[in-house]
């Protein structure tokens, strides 16, 4: 037997009740095209009119640009990327705002409201795995591996032990501190 909440959640949604108009009437406008006719008063029009006249003509080209950029950044290849779609769309919409028509391009982190938002909510640093290309990452991994293999060599181990012993006997860290103290005093 199902719990009452589960039974209610698993019931199909009556789509007819959600929308008063038939599905045929909900046709999205053509990309970048504003509907014909006089724009309605934004404070008095219906939500549908507001979307069709004020939101979709700006948002749809932005989403198209977002998809092109995502394709260029190889986001559809199933790999993690450094591309953040919401950042791209925020920057695009800010710069394409008709009120900023004569102003120059502004990068995302220079947008005033983004600066304010990030002041209160700083982002974690981007992982190195997303910043490096595959070639750079392979070079880095190979150099670490070669370094590890060299350090495993018995002669190198002997040299490292000798250096450690020498540092401890001659109090090298103290000598270095005194040297830098003299340099800073000059």
From TrEMBL:
A Pfam family of this chain: IQ
InterPro entries per record: IQ_motif_EF-hand-BS (IPR000048), IQCK (IPR043408)
PANTHER family: IQ DOMAIN-CONTAINING PROTEIN K
Protein name (Swiss-Prot/TrEMBL): IQCK protein
Lineage of the species this protein comes from: Eukaryota, Metazoa, Chordata, Craniata, Vertebrata
Gene this protein is translated from: Iqck
């Amino acid at each position: 037997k199902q719990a009452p909440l589960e039974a209610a959640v698993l019931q199909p949604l009556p789509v007819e009740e959600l929308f008063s108009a038939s599905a045929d009437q909900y046709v999205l406008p053509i990309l970048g095209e504003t509907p014909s006719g006089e724009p309605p008063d934004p404070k008095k029009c219906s939500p549908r009119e507001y979307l069709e006249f004020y939101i979709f003509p700006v948002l749809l080209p932005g989403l198209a640009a977002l998809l092109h950029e995502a394709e260029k950044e190889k986001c559809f290849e199933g790999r993690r990327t450094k591309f953040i779609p919401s950042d791209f769309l925020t920057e695009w919409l800010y710069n394409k705002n008709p009120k900023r028509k004569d102003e120059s391009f502004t990068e995302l982190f220079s947008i005033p409201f983004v600066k304010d938002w990030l002041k209160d909510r700083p982002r974690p640093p981007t992982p190195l795995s997303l910043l490096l290309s595959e070639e750079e990452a392979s070079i880095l991994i190979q150099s670490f591996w070669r370094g590890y293999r060299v350090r495993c060599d018995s002669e190198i181990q002997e040299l490292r032990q000798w250096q450690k012993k020498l540092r401890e006997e001659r109090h090298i860290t103290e000598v270095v501190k005194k040297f830098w103290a003299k340099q800073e005093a000059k």
